[in-house]
């Protein structure tokens, strides 16, 4: 991944700006002390007829998973703190349109270890996650700051 040229990094960042997503979500996890997890991800989308291109991208970045969806689209998803942080740091100088999402996600990632068992700190991080609703024009977020606050009784 570090062997990518500046041109390749710029191209991948442009592809992410156009046909990708930078996201943080709050996921319900009964097995977690605070009952929720913050999931961070980068996803690239492409029609399945061009699935080969996502395979090529996967080979360049060396993280994540590929899948063909039943609706004729393919996804290349990179999930998890370390892999997402590495990719964002690599592409950040070249990202244009989704730079606010990239910077916010890096801020969330940097603060995640500090909130492991601290409900108040976790709740503050959930407020930041909620900002992705507007940044990404999300319509289907079911779990948000209020859900976490009420579940934790804060």
Automatic annotation (TrEMBL):
GO molecular function: endonuclease activity
InterPro entries: Homing_endonucl (IPR027434), LAGLIDADG_dom (IPR004860)
Gene for this chain: orf154
Domain Homing endonuclease LAGLIDADG, chain residue ranges per copy: 12-94
Keywords tagged on the record: Chloroplast, Plastid
Superkingdom to which the source organism belongs: Eukaryota
Protein name: Homing endonuclease LAGLIDADG domain-containing protein
Taxonomic source organism: Ulva rigida
UniProt keyword Cell inner membrane, yes or no: no
């Amino acid at each position: 991944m570090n062997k990518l040229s500046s041109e390749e990094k710029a191209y991948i960042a442009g592809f992410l700006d156009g046909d990708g997503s930078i996201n943080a979500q709050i996921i319900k996890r009964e097995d977690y002390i605070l009952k929720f997890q913050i999931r961070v991800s980068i996803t690239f989308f492409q029609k399945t007829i061009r699935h080969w291109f996502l395979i090529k991208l996967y080979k360049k970045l060396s993280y994540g998973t590929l899948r063909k969806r039943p609706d004729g689209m393919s996804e290349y998803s990179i999930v998890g703190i370390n892999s997402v942080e590495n990719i964002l740091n690599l592409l950040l100088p070249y990202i244009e349109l989704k730079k606010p999402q990239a910077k916010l996600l890096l801020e969330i990632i940097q603060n995640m270890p500090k909130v492991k068992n601290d409900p108040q700190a976790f709740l503050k991080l959930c407020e930041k996650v909620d900002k992705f609703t507007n940044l990404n024009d999300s319509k289907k977020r079911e779990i948000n700051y209020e859900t976490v606050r009420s579940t934790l009784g804060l």
